[in-house]
Please model this.
Amino acid sequence: SQQGEEDPQALSIQEGENATMNCSYKTSINNLQWYRQNSGRGLVHLILIRSNEREKHSGRLRVTLDTSKKSSSLLITASRAADTASYFCATDGNAGNMLTFGGGTRLMVKP
Amino acid sequence: NAGVTQTPKFQVLKTGQSMTLQCAQDMNHEYMSWYRQDPGMGLRLIHYSVGAGITDQGEVPNGYNVSRSTTEDFPLRLLSAAPSQTSVYFCASSPERRQPQHFGDGTRLSIL
Model:
């Protein structure tokens, strides 16, 4: 079973617009991570937010975490065509296991 | 520094054949894991290892075997390939269980 579920499954925007992706999860976590996957490549880690943090920034990325709602959001500001990729959230809520990934959001940024 | 290296990149097998997917990392990471990625399903954990000589099952372990004789290598064995095992397989490593994982570029496997 998937711990994290992303929403929407697909998102298409124009270059320069902001993109927001959401992630919901089921159990308590220590941290939540976001990853990016370009077509035909492996996942690349973007940002990690701990359960006691509410917001974190990295360049054009902004991640929020609401543990009471068991949800997180990833905001990409001023998107570029090069941001076209799939984005996954991952949580560490399962004791003894590695990260559990959601199904991903496919983002397309049109030039 | 190569990171996580997976071989082969592509493979076609016939039902019933066996093969080993190779994974090697040069970052001295203790934690390694294997995932499969199917359309619309995200990544599902097959097996993982918390150090040399220690392995455990993930969410979808049936039909797969692993071993970890060294810190660097974590091969995944398909015992008797089935069409349901057609997928993209990713190997990942991290220094600690909850730390960011480093992924290889995957092995695209087709079972006919």
